[in-house]
Specification:
mainly alpha, 68% helix, elongated, heme
Length: 116
Amino acid sequence: MMKNQTTYNRTARYLHWGMALCYTVMFATEIAWNMNDSLKFLMNPHRAIGILLLILTLFRVIWAITHAKQPPAKSLTAKLGHRVLYVLMLAVPIVGVVRQAGFAQGNQPLIDLGIA
């Protein structure tokens, strides 16, 4: 967002809403297959969307750094909240990839979530 603009540009909006849609699908597939074992086929789309989210998050971080012309958040709470969200957007998919890599090598997960 430029200093004289009151809205985010198109790329920022597409990233925001695209990622929101991906996270909604991620949560829905996780809940669905935990409620009904016959829906375990949703794991593959869940993984694919997770990888897409990781790529979008990396792009979003780069975009935020290179387009940092927006006015900074005024409160310390808002600044910390944004930073925590960016860390979580990176950490959650990375943990999923690492967990899947462990399964691929035949290792047992640290916590058995019953989805292997």
